[in-house]
From TrEMBL:
InterPro entries, A to Z: PASTA_dom
Phylogenetic lineage: Bacteria, Pseudomonadati, Bacteroidota, Flavobacteriia, Flavobacteriales
Parts of the chain that traverse the membrane: 12-34
Listed name of the protein: PASTA domain-containing protein
Keyword 4Fe-4S: no
Amino acid sequence: MSLRKYLTSRVFFGQVLIALAIIAALGYLFMHWLTFTTDHGHEIAVPNLSKLTEEQVEEKLDELDLDYVLLDSVDYRSDFPQFSVVEQDPSPGTKVKVGRKIYIKINTSGFSSVRIPDLIEKTYREAVPTLKALGLEEGTVTYVPNLGKDMVLEMRFKGRNLKVGDRVLKSSKIDLVLGDGKMSYEEEESAADTLVAPIEETPVDEQ
């Protein structure tokens, strides 16, 4: 039989159909195997872990066949309980597969302390961003007569004056005393002279 007759014969077409059927069957079986091995279609919604302790997180995720990884602790946040989850990834409601790891960050036990920076004779515009960068907040702003307008003259916390290097807790409100810029140069010199005027010493009896 010539090649041309073979290619047009029933035997050839029968073999082609058998080959196509085998390929289709193998493809079907492969897709089912792939679905089984990747657990396709079996997804779990990530629960909301916010404000849960690490022990509660472990218990909740075990029930869903999920795992967790503790990344780090974050600066204390007063709106979250101590040692509770502040951040999680993936976020709540995200569909994940069995065994997926959920990354969490835990709240610390309390505010950490920071050192008071040198803001004296800095401008108000310079002082506020510096405080915020350290986790501090701007408190009450008071103006007093001074040549330097909006210049920081004093820093106070709960009524007491602060010195550079003093420690306060993060999120503390720092009150600022600023110059109003209304005092003339002569008035400032006069005020300074008054402050440094000599004080008469009183003799002390020798013991």
